[in-house]
Specification:
- The protein is of the alpha+beta class.
- It has 15 helices and 22 strands.
- The strands form seven sheets. Strands 1, 14, 15, 16, 19 and 20 form a six-stranded mixed sheet that branches. Strands 4-13-12-11 form a four-stranded mixed sheet, with no helix packed on it.
- Strand 2 and strand 3 form a beta hairpin.
- Helix 8 runs antiparallel to helix 10 and helix 14 runs antiparallel to helix 15.
- The N terminus is likely disordered.
Length: 514
């Protein structure tokens, strides 16, 4: 049974290799007092391995599911990404939009017995901000955090941050035990105030993580399962086998060729926008290690070399909406007209290359990511080759490829990158200090527009977001193919609701099937 749901949804979904293992079910679920099923075990298979438990090292997207059992966050995001109270019950900005006051719950206790309060918020925000991963990147506008009384925290920003409250409803706003922050122990053992605690005796690093109920959790009704088991499966065949065997209750079907097999096995699937844009990413658009990319005509030629419709239909098996812009189609920054800017036109691409002085082409070295999607990688080699650009693939171990890309090892690559709200997209990849701007490329025009948008609101801000989108698309900062869709498969033992701006459903979007 397949239901197509309108939602959105990470930063990058990259795959590794591991073996399938473990499994349980929700067969021991019982009926709660309100008539809904409760209890039992929920077993899920994330498509990435776990990162360290210290939130300063935390990523987003597919990594978030590991943190959700043990760490509660300041806000809760509804399936439609609306902000709801959680650890923070009230919040308000000042007139300048640079001071956010949070009123906190007074009945929350960390699993080490420490009460949750404003000082805990201060310690966590400062710690997470001090990291180098994606959660830290979402807090870079934070200048200071102050506990003005026991249950009131004030976050002061160096400039307005249109996405801060939303991001505090995810990993960036999660709370670890203050006493554990800064300890080596937190790297390997989580300590928080979330709905579950890690059962270390029944967990194996990189293979299986078992979580049991936190008896003192304040919002048990939101998490109906007694036990959560996370078994990372980074190989698409392992995911398929585990789903068919009933070893897991849910997982992202990372290879679209497996969808029909999953459905034939009687599993349900939900299909939803994943909140990513996918395509050929031009990391070195300033020409630092590949001078040709510093010429806008070369970047435009690369865009015209790709037959996006065919790639999406064949290599991606129709999963996604064709577009050539980095912004999410469900946001105010998106402009449908921009999708006509780079039609598939190999002859025009050759002309542009010749005008730029590359009539005989040039070589682009990139990581071989065929393990992620062999068809997409083959399309890159074939279609760039057709206009005279030689794509040379280098071995790229999938357990190090992300760090290698961030370090600027390659000028280009096949990739999928998060595109949530416009400000998120800007902060993730367009600012000079953005995490996914590895060569720290800067264009003064874009920097100025970003600054204007940061201090604007309402329709004025939306117009500036569209202006930024128009400029970076015309300058061919990337060669995006599509806004991605994800397929999430689950057993009939559970009900699942997708999460907007997330590649996978949130833990609180799972419930035992009635």
């Amino acid at each position: 049974m397949r239901r197509r749901l309108l939602a959105a949804g990470a930063v990058a979904l990259m795959l590794g290799l591991t073996a399938c293992g473990g499994g349980s079910s929700t067969d021991d679920a019982t009926e709660g007092t309100d008539g809904t099923a409760t209890g039992g075990t929920l077993t899920l298979a994330p498509v990435v391995v776990a990162q360290p438990w210290d939130l300063k090292d935390a990523g987003l997207g597919n990594n978030t599911i590991y943190y959700q059992p043990v760490y509660d966050q300041l806000f809760r995001q509804s399936p439609e990404a609306e902000i709801l109270p959680n650890l923070a019950t009230e919040w308000a900005y000042d007139e300048a939009l640079t001071s956010l006051t949070l009123t906190l719950r007074e009945d929350v206790v960390f699993t080490d017995g420490t009460p949750f309060n404003a000082e805990a918020v201060v310690a966590n925000i400062i710690n997470t901000k001090g990291g180098t991963n994606e959660a830290a990147n979402q807090l870079k506008s934070v200048e200071s955090v102050e506990a003005t009384d026991e249950f009131t925290a004030v976050i002061t920003l160096n400039a307005p941050d249109p996405s801060l409250v939303f991001n505090l409803g995810s990993t960036a706003g999660m709370m670890a035990c203050p006493a554990a922050i800064g300890t080596e122990e937190l790297q390997v053992t989580p300590c928080g105030s979330g709905p579950y605690v890690l059962d270390e005796a029944n967990s194996t690093v990189d293979a299986k993580y078992t979580f049991t109920r936190n008896a003192d959790y304040w919002n048990t009704e939101a998490f109906p399962f007694d036990t959560i088991v996370l078994t990372p499966l980074t190989d698409s065949t392992a995911v398929l086998n585990a789903l068919q065997a009933g070893q897991i209750d849910g997982a992202t079907v990372t290879d679209a060729k497996n969808i029909a097999t999953v459905e034939a096995a009687g599993l349900s699937t939900i299909v939803y926008p994943a909140g990513d844009t996918m395509g050929f990413f031009l990391w070195d658009r300033g020409g630092v290690i590949q001078p040709a990319l510093g010429d806008v005509r070369v970047r435009q030629a690369i865009n015209m070399a790709f037959d996006r419709e065919t790639i999406v239909e064949t290599a991606l098996l129709g999963q996604g909406t064709v577009q050539n812009q980095v912004f999410n189609p469900d946001t105010a920054a998106y402009d449908e007209a921009l999708n006509d800017l780079y039609p598939y036109d190999p002859e025009r691409a050759k002309e542009l290359l010749a005008e730029a002085g590359y009539a005989d082409g040039f070589e682009l070295v990139m990581p071989d990511l065929s393990a992620f999607n062999a068809g997409a990688q083959a399309a890159i080699v074939e279609q760039l080759g057709a206009v005279g650009i030689t794509a040379t693939l280098e071995n790229a171990p999938l357990d190090t490829v992300i760090n290698d890309l961030l370090a600027g090892k390659w000028a280009v690559s096949f990739f999928a990158l998060a595109s949530f709200r416009p400000w998120d997209t800007i902060q993730i990849q367009l600012t000079p200090d953005a995490l996914w701007n590895p060569f720290k490329y800067e264009d003064p025009i874009v920097t100025d527009l970003i600054t204007q948008a940061q201090f604007a609101t309402g329709e004025e801000q939306d117009a500036l977001f569209r202006e930024i989108n128009t400029y970076v698309t015309e300058q061919a900062w990337q060669a995006v193919w599509n806004a991605t869709e994800n397929t999430y498969a689950h057993s009939d033992r559970v009900s699942v609701v997708p999460q907007m701006f997330s590649p996978t459903p949130a833990l609180y979007n799972f419930s035992p099937a009635s």
